[in-house]
Design brief:
Radius of gyration of chain B: 22 Å
Largest sheet of chain B: 9 strands, mixed
Structural class of chain B: alpha/beta
CATH class of chain A: Mainly Alpha
Number of helices of chain B: 12
Strand order of the largest sheet of chain B: 6-7-8-3-9-10-13-12-14
CATH class of the largest domain in chain B: Alpha Beta
Shape of chain A: globular
Oligomer: heterodimer
CATH superfamily of chain A: MetI-like
CATH architecture of the largest domain in chain B: 3-Layer(aba) Sandwich
Helix content of chain A: 55-70%
Largest interface: A-B, 28 and 35 residues
Structural class of chain A: mainly alpha
Number of domains of chain A: 1
Largest sheet of chain A: 2 strands, antiparallel
CATH topology of the largest domain in chain B: Rossmann fold
Number of strands of chain B: 15
Number of helices of chain A: 13
CATH architecture of chain A: Orthogonal Bundle
Strand order of the largest sheet of chain A: 1-2
CATH topology of chain A: MetI-like fold
Number of domains of chain B: 2
C-alpha cells in the first residue's frame, strides 16, 4: 500500500536539487499547491497524457452528436436483417453465418457492426460514457468513504478504529474481482433499496456503487496511516490547546494535509475502477445489456475474435488508452505533489 | 506573587500519568503501564519561570502536556487559579485554554504546512473572539511583536527558517493572550546562535506581558538564564526543586550534581580540572521503575535504604526541595532544620535524610550498585 513515509507533511525538505531550486525561485507567498502546479507544468509527458485523457472524455461526451449527425442511429438500434450500400456495393450488415460487417470507414458503421447489427462506433462512444461515468463516479464514492472512514478510524482510535479496521480486514480478504462479481450478480438480479435510495436492477448505479465500495479499503488504509502520523504532529496539539474540537481539527488541520494524497490517488483509482468495470461487465456482473460498455463489448465480441476482430480491438484500444493516460498523468501528479512518495495501488 | 492573594497560578498535586501497554490478539489487554509521570507536585506563581529539566524520556514533555490537559492525568489534581481542571471536559476547559498556551519543540512539525501564517494566527484569534478586520491587524501586530515582518502574513511555513518558524509558534501561543505559557524545549531544535535570540525574545515577552513560563529543557545550561526556580525530573519524579541560583551553587541531589557536571565548560583547562560525577548507563525502564529511590541503580551514593524506601521530598532552608536519602552539600544542622514537604510522593517514607560528610559516600563505590556509576576525579 502507500508507504506511510509519504505522510510527511513538510513540503520542501529533502527535495531533489533542481526542485528545491525551483521552489526558491518561487515568489514569496507561493503556496504548496501553486508550487506543485508549476512542477506539473514542467512535466510535458504527464501533461500530454492528461490531455489525451481529456480528449477521450470529450469524445465520449460527444457520443450523441456522432450518433445523430454522422451515424444516424442509436446505440440500441438492431439492424440484423438490413443491408447498407458502401461505395455502390450493397452488403448485409450481418452475414448469414452470423459474422457482422467490419469497419466501413464511412459515417454509418464507421467501425463496423456487432452481431445484432448495432453500430460499433456509436456503442464505443456511448460505452465510453458509461465506463468513464462509472469509473469517475465510483472513484468519488471511494474517496469520500475512504476519507471519512480513514479520518474517523485514525483520529479517534479506540473501539471505533477497532470496528472499522476489522471490517476492512474482512473486505481485504476478498479479491476485488470476487467481491465485485458476488455483489454484482446478486444486486443486478434484484436491485437494492437502502432507505430512500432505490436502485433498480440493471441501473448503472449498481456497478458504480459496487466498484466504489470495493476500492474503499485500498484508499482508507493509507489515509488512516497518514492520519495516525498527522494527529501526533505538534500542530494538531496546538489546535487542541486552542480548544478546537475533533471535527474542526479533522476538517481544518488534517484534511488539507490529506488532500495531496487524495489528489495523487484519484487518477489511479479512476484507472483501476474503469478496469474493474470492464472486468465485471466482461463477466456479466457489471453493466447490463443492452447498455453499452467497453468491457461488455469485449465480452460480446470474444466469439468473433478471428472472424470479426474489430469487435474486441476497438474497445480494447480505448480501454488501454484511457488507463495508460490516467496512470501516466497520475504519476506526474504524484511527482509534482510529493516527489518522495512511493504511492502505489496494490491488490 | 499573584495579585489575588496567595493562590498560585497553577497547582499540580500528586499528578500521575500512566500509559497502558497493550497486547493481545483481536482484543487488547493492558499488560503494563509506562509510568511517564509518577506523583509529581509543584506550583507556579504568577509571573515566575519554572525550569523543568531532565534526560530524554524522564516524563517532562508528558508532564507539560498533562498540565495543559492535552492528556488526561491518571491520578492527581491540577488547579488553575484555584479552579480544579483535572477532569474538566472540552467545553469546560475553553475559558482556561485561552489562558494557557504552549510553544512546541519542533518548529517544523508545529506549524501546519498547508496553512498561511494568516490562517495559523487567525484561528486562535477567532477562538478568542476577535472578528473581521481586527484579525488581520492583530495577526500583523503579533508578527511584529515576535520580531518578524508584518508582510510575512501571507507566507507559508516552508518559506521560513527554523528560528522564524519558532517565532511564529510563539506568536500563535500569544494570540490567545495567555497567562501561562508552557515552553516545551523551545530552543533545543535550533542553532545555538538562534537559541539565544529566541530566549531573549521569550524574556522580553515575559517582561512585557507578565507571562508565567513552564520552561521544559533537557539541559541545565539553557534554563539557567531564564528560570526563577528549577525542577529536576528523573524517571517521572521530581528529584530536586530549588531556586535557580541555589541549584547551581549547592546541588543537594546526586543526580542534579551529575547533570551539572555534564554541562560542558568552554575552557578545556577548567573543564579538566573540575571533579565530574559521571552517571553511567541508561535510565531504568519506566514500565517497571525500580523500588525505593528511582535513581538508586545509577547513584554513586546509593545504599540499602535507597533500594527499599522512596525518599521524601525534603524541604531545606530557602524553599530548596530534594528527594534523597543521602543529600550532598548540606550540614547536619540543615538536615535537622529541614521538614518533609507535602509535595512528597504518597508512597514516600517519612524518615529524614541522614548526614553524609563530604568526601565520604561520594567517592566510595556504592555497595551493590554493580559499577553502574562511577566518579571521576
Amino acid at each position: 500500500m502507500a508507504s506511510t513515509d509519504s505522510a510527511a507533511t513538510d513540503f520542501s525538505d529533502d527535495l531533489p536539487a533542481e526542485l528545491a531550486a525551483e521552489e526558491r525561485r518561487a515568489p514569496a507567498g507561493t503556496g504548496p499547491w501553486r508550487i506543485a502546479l508549476r512542477r506539473l507544468r514542467r512535466n510535458k509527458v504527464a501533461l500530454a497524457f492528461g490531455v489525451l485523457f481529456l480528449a477521450l472524455v470529450a469524445v465520449s461526451l460527444a457520443a450523441p452528436i456522432w450518433a445523430e449527425e454522422v451515424a444516424h442511429t442509436t446505440p440500441y438500434q438492431n439492424r440484423i436483417a438490413d443491408t447498407i450500400t458502401i461505395d455502390g456495393e450493397e452488403r448485409n450488415i450481418v452475414e448469414f453465418d452470423g459474422v457482422p460487417i467490419g469497419p466501413t470507414w464511412h459515417g454509418e458503421y464507421f467501425l463496423g457492426a456487432d452481431r445484432n447489427g448495432r453500430d460499433v462506433m456509436v456503442r464505443l462512444l456511448y460505452g465510453g460514457r458509461n465506463s468513464l461515468l462509472i469509473g469517475i463516479g465510483a472513484s468519488i464514492i471511494t474517496m469520500v468513504l475512504a476519507t471519512l472512514l480513514g479520518l474517523l478510524s485514525g483520529y479517534f482510535g479506540g473501539w471505533l478504529d477497532w470496528v472499522i479496521s476489522r471490517c476492512f480486514d474482512v473486505m481485504w480478504a476478498f479479491p476485488v474481482i470476487l467481491l465485485g462479481v458476488a455483489l454484482g450478480v446478486s444486486l443486478n438480479i434484484s436491485g437494492i433499496t437502502i432507505g430512500p435510495l432505490e436502485l433498480e436492477s440493471g441501473s448503472l448505479w449498481i456497478p458504480t456503487v459496487i466498484i466504489g465500495i470495493a476500492y474503499v479499503v485500498y484508499l482508507a488504509r493509507p489515509i488512516r496511516g497518514q492520519v495516525l502520523a498527522l494527529r501526533e504532529k505538534e500542530f494538531v496539539e496546538a489546535a487542541r490547546a486552542q480548544g478546537m474540537g475533533p471535527w474542526r481539527i479533522m476538517l481544518t488541520e488534517l484534511l488539507p494535509n490529506l488532500a495531496s494524497t487524495l489528489l495523487v490517488f484519484f487518477p489511479l483509482i479512476v484507472a483501476n475502477a474503469i478496469l474493474l468495470e470492464a472486468a465485471l461487465s466482461f463477466l456479466g456482473a457489471g453493466v447490463q445489456p443492452p447498455e453499452p460498455s467497453w468491457g461488455l463489448m469485449i465480452s460480446e465480441g470474444i466469439e468473433f475474435l478471428t472472424s470479426a476482430p474489430h469487435l474486441t480491438i476497438a474497445p480494447g484500444i480505448m480501454l488501454v488508452l484511457t488507463v495508460l493516460a490516467l496512470n501516466i498523468f497520475g504519476e506526474g501528479v504524484r511527482d509534482a505533489l510529493d516527489p518522495r512518495a512511493k504511492i502505489r495501488l496494490e491488490h | 506573587m499573584s495579585a489575588n492573594g496567595d493562590t498560585p497560578l497553577l497547582e499540580v498535586e500528586h499528578v500521575k500519568q500512566y500509559f497502558p501497554v497493550k497486547s493481545g490478539v483481536l482484543i487488547d489487554r493492558t499488560v503494563a503501564n509506562v509510568h511517564a509521570v509518577d506523583d509529581v507536585t509543584f506550583s507556579l506563581r504568577e509571573g515566575e519561570t519554572l525550569g523543568l529539566v531532565g534526560e530524554s524520556g524522564c516524563g517532562k514533555t508528558t508532564l507539560s502536556r498533562t498540565v495543559l490537559r492535552l492528556l488526561d492525568p491518571t491520578a492527581g489534581r491540577i488547579r488553575f487559579r484555584g479552579a480544579d481542571i483535572t477532569r474538566a471536559g472540552r467545553r469546560a476547559m475553553r475559558p482556561y485554554r485561552r489562558e494557557m498556551q504552549m510553544v512546541f519543540q519542533d518548529p517544523f512539525a508545529s506549524l501546519n504546512p498547508r496553512k498561511r501564517v494568516a490562517q495559523i494566527l487567525g484561528a486562535p484569534l477567532r477562538q478568542r473572539g476577535v472578528r473581521g478586520a481586527d484579525v488581520d491587524r492583530e495577526a500583523r501586530d503579533l508578527l511584529d511583536r515576535v520580531g518578524l515582518m508584518r508582510e510575512h502574513i501571507n507566507r507559508y511555513p516552508h518559506e521560513f527558517s527554523g528560528g522564524q518558524r519558532q517565532r511564529i509558534g510563539i506568536a500563535r501561543a500569544l494570540a490567545m493572550s495567555p497567562k501561562l505559557v508552557v515552553l516545551d524545549e523551545p530552543v533545543s531544535a535550533l542553532d545555538v546562535s538562534i537559541q539565544a535570540q529566541i530566549i531573549n525574545l521569550l524574556e522580553e515577552l515575559q517582561d512585557g506581558l507578565g507571562l508565567t513560563y513552564l520552561f521544559v529543557a533537557h539541559d541545565l545550561s539553557v534554563v539557567r538564564h531564564v528560570s526563577d526556580r528549577i525542577a529536576v525530573m528523573y524517571l517521572g519524579r521530581i528529584m530536586e526543586l530549588s531556586p535557580a541560583g541555589e541549584l547551581y551553587d549547592k546541588p543537594i541531589h546526586p543526580y542534579t550534581q551529575a547533570l551539572l557536571s555534564a554541562i560542558p565548560i568552554p575552557d578545556p583547562r577548567e573543564n579538566r580540572a573540575r571533579r565530574r560525577i559521571v552517571v553511567a548507563g541508561e535510565p531504568p525502564n519506566p514500565i517497571q521503575p525500580p523500588p525505593g529511590c528511582v535513581f538508586h541503580t545509577r547513584c554513586p551514593r546509593a545504599t540499602e535504604v535507597c533500594r527499599t524506601v522512596v525518599p521524601p521530598l525534603t524541604e531545606y532552608a530557602g524553599g530548596h526541595l530534594a528527594a534523597c536519602h543521602h543529600p550532598l552539600n548540606v550540614t547536619r544542622e540543615e538536615i535537622a532544620a529541614a521538614t518533609i514537604s507535602d509535595a512528597s510522593p504518597e508512597t514516600a517514607g517519612q524518615v529524614k535524610p541522614d548526614f553524609v560528610p563530604a568526601g565520604e559516600g561520594g567517592d566510595e563505590r556504592a555497595p551493590g550498585s554493580g559499577g553502574a556509576a562511577a566518579v571521576e576525579a
